[in-house]
Amino acid sequence: MSGGRRRPLVAGNWKMNLLQAEAAVWCRALRSDLPTSKAAVGVAVFPSFPLLPVVARELTGSSIAVGGQDLHPAEKGAHTGDVSGAQLADAGCTWVLCGHSERRRDHGESDELVGRKAAAALRHGLTPLICLGETRDERQAGRTFEVLERQLRAALAPLDSRPVGFALAYEPVWAIGTGETATPEIAQEAHAFLRRLLAGLEGVGPAAEGLSLLYGGSVTPDSAPGLIAQADIDGFLVGGASLDPRNFLAIIRGSG
Ligand code: PEP
């Protein structure tokens, strides 16, 4: 359990999956099965852009939050294929992923761009869920903490006075979509490092204790309880296992 200090959050990242009818079925299944007694666990879902209207409609009146998977740092304009913070908020989003490793890999997103995206999210009243994590090569070279520190400092640099309205997802790249979940010890070590780093940053300081640090990387109903038991793990960003509402619900149940 997260030390009783922070409300756990379980977030589903659908990536580039599902069609509208499937998304509606997923939402109805989760709503009907989500135990109200588990309101102690926050739940969010990150569908791809064309699914946002149907998901927002299906989840209206529920406690499940909706987020976008990415946003452009500009307010609007000539950015074909991109989506603005205002458009996400208008579509019913309250969250947005920034710097997911698949965006960094597929679209060459830099640490600096991730920071500008997080700042744009905050301008539009969206909570950025900033994703960071090392590759397998970086871990094997003993550079994990160096990489996390570089990514975190860059992501927070453009945030004026570092408002604490953001959350982090530690997602080791070697664990995403591979079935190789980080052990609770490895994940806790990284989370504790990130929280210590946050606590030392001007503008964050003691507020670091209240920030949500999620773990992401092949989380399953079986691995969730051991991870959430760690002092600095406050929930999960779940990819593959979030596509089946029964698995997602089992992870929620295992996080409360
Ligand atoms: C993710 O997409 O953020 C993720 C953690 O994926 P998976 O759970 O499939 O590893």
Protein model, in words:
The protein is α/β, with parallel strands linked by helices. It has a single domain, classed as Aldolase class I (TIM Barrel, Alpha-Beta Barrel), CATH 3.20.20.70. The protein is built from ten helices and eight strands. The protein has helices spanning 20-33, 52-58, 85-90, 101-107, 111-123, 136-140, 144-156, 184-199, 224-228, 245-253, and strands at 9-13, 42-46, 64-68, 95-98, 127-132, 167-170, 213-216, 235-238. It has an eight-stranded parallel β-barrel with strand order 1-2-3-4-5-6-7-8, surrounded by five helices. Strand 7, helix 9 (224-228) and strand 8 (235-238) form a beta-alpha-beta unit. Helix 1 runs parallel beside helix 10, helix 5 packs across helix 7 (144-156) and helix 7 crosses helix 8 (184-199). The radius of gyration is 17 Å and the shape is globular. The chain starts with 8 loop residues before the first strand and ends with a helix. Bound molecules: phosphoenolpyruvate (PEP). The site of phosphoenolpyruvate (PEP) has 14 residues, from strand 8.
What brief labels describe this structure?
256 residues; alpha/beta; TIM Barrel; 37% helix; binds phosphoenolpyruvate
Describe what is shown at a glance.
The chain has 256 residues and is an alpha/beta fold. The chain has helices at residues 20-33, 52-58, 85-90, 101-107, 111-123, 136-140, 144-156, 184-199, 224-228, 245-253, and strands spanning 9-13, 42-46, 64-68, 95-98, 127-132, 167-170, 213-216, 235-238.
